[in-house]
Amino acid sequence: MKSVQPCPVRQARVNCPHLTYIRRMDFSPADLTSGITIHCYRPGHKSPTKVINTHGIIPEDFSTSTCKGAVRGLKFIKNHAQNFLEQIEPICNLTDSIDPGTLECEEDEALIGLQVDIEHPSKLIKKMEIQCRKVPTPALNCTPTETFQSVSVCDNSSGLQDMVCKFIQTVGIQVSQSATKSEKKAFRFYSDWELSTSGGLLGSSLQAVFSAKIGPSQESSYNWSSTTSSTWTELTSVEVSTSTPPGVITRLEQLIGQCSFYNVNVNYFKQIDISPNSTSRVNNSLKFEESINFSLPPINLVF
Q1: What's the pTM value of the predicted model, to 2 decimals?
Q2: Which domain of life is it from (predicted)?
Q3: Considering the chain, what percentage of its residues have pLDDT values greater than 90?
């Protein structure tokens, strides 16, 4: 009597490129013999960076499941009698499930790949494992720049005596309201991992990036390495006071660091006094007393 030989099984692995995550998955509505297609996206990008199928061929007839941010795990239905996977369902939000038919990434991770055992010639998926990757704070991958932005104007061009102008300015991390559509989408993505909020990891990461990549700046004459620690962890209300002589217009500009969709408003100002003959005098080393401190609230973009 001949013994029944098991069908051969091969292992296949599909993975996303670095800093991309699975947002969309395609699979046959009937079974998984046409494989599972993963679509890898960069945060905020509309089109996938890579599309790849576990069985090596993109099927024409399939169902699609898409997460707003990234897939964080899989639920699956298994045929225990014949030992193969019948269906899968991507998990977009973390759950507390301990169901044996659930595979989930860790809280700080997203799905970036699959490893499957495929039986031949049936093409059934006998076993599946998921590959996850920790989602890093976006501050680690942005390129910092700096610029002075006008924050107030004190017009004493028609005055006969000195004019004192006082304003309240903010020091700390905020989100740029001029963020691009792609940056806003990326912000929403990182919000799912609580990596876009202020303070903590975000603050220390931005501090390290500005210190390492700009440090002492010849352009602004400001040393980012010496920025006070509170700038990275809390918002500070600063009362700005300028004295403008008669016939002069004073413009006050604040140094703003920019990195991706983040603005870092520092306590460093440039005062420009413009005289009637259009000559100007610049003092760019002004700092003011930080009077009111409060913890940074969660950062939100206005869409």
Answers
A1: 0.73
A2: Eukaryota
A3: 40
